[in-house]
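lol forgot to send this yesterday, sorry. struct tokens for the thing we talked abt
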């Protein structure tokens, strides 16, 4: 802090703590007061649907990207990203895009822009077809904080159904690593790793191997598809691991994490044949006043 600035601390005995910094012009900034927190938008799933006008010739191989841009960072915060050489096969039975993002929380300070560029792979690149190429805006009028919301984005050739939730006083949890530290993962077992909280009745899928076996590196590392989750301060983050075969779920375990403002947490899931360790990093997100001065 520069010379000539001074700080006022406020604590109201209800775990709400705020800091106000004044400079020589008496301009004021707020830091991390719960009432100033920007809402975080959590995307649980994106489903591809027919739009009633254009019928999809299932199955389809889809590539391209879906990205969000918010006030904090105008760069693309990718939710889905596939190249033509690595498309995702979508079927009527499983029409959900395999999301890999966001890489940081999506903050709803001003309306959030979503950019969609999706194509259907043809036999040759010249035969590729545009699936959706549009931009949508998500403002404050869609969905209540702490509740699931479903919204459809209509395109010329398909519709995307977005399942999401807005969270208020939340911190960012980054799943830094997932590793098998004891035993081994069966070669013929698929795997599913999800996170959830009691307040939202939906799983945030971190990894789902589908019909195939779950890949585990020789050193025991499990590469998750998604890794950034938002958790409200008064909630508990639960991370669950399922191992399944053709006969169904063969083992399942879960571990709970209490949110922090910083540092890391370590927890393990014991599935019997192996133990999986998770390391979670915690961080605060920007408030709406972190981006501007007021009181001048």
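and heres what i got for the seq, position by position
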């Amino acid at each position: 802090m520069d010379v000539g600035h001074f700080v006022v601390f406020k604590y109201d005995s209800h775990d709400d703590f705020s800091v106000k910094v004044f400079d020589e012009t008496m301009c004021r900034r707020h830091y991390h007061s719960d009432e100033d927190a920007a809402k975080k938008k959590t995307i649980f799933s994106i489903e591809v649907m027919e739009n009633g006008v254009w019928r999809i010739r299932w199955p389809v191989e889809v590539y391209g990207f879906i990205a969000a841009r918010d006030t904090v960072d105008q760069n693309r915060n990718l939710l889905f990203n596939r190249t033509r050489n690595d498309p995702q096969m979508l079927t009527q039975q499983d029409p959900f895009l395999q999301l890999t993002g966001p890489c940081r929380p999506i903050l709803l300070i001003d309306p959030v822009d979503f950019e969609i560029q999706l194509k259907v792979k043809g036999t040759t690149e010249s035969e590729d077809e545009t699936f959706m190429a549009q931009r949508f805006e998500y403002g404050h009028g869609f969905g209540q904080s702490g509740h699931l919301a479903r919204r459809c984005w209509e395109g010329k050739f398909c519709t995307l159904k977005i399942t999401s939730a807005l969270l208020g006083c939340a911190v960012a949890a980054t799943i830094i690593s997932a590793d098998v530290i004891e035993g081994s993962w069966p070669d013929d077992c698929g795997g599913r790793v999800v996170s959830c909280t009691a307040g939202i009745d939906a799983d945030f899928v971190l990894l789902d191997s589908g019909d195939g076996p779950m890949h585990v590196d020789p050193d025991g590392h499990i590469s998750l598809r998604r890794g950034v989750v938002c958790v409200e301060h008064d909630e508990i983050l639960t991370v669950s691991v399922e191992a399944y075969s053709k006969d169904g779920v063969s083992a399942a375990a879960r571990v709970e994490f209490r949110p922090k403002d910083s540092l890391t947490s370590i927890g393990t899931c014991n599935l019997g044949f192996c133990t999986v360790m998770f390391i979670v990093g915690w961080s605060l997100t920007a408030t709406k006043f972190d981006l501007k001065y007021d009181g001048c």
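DSSP finds no helices and 20 strands in the chain. anyway ping me if u want another try
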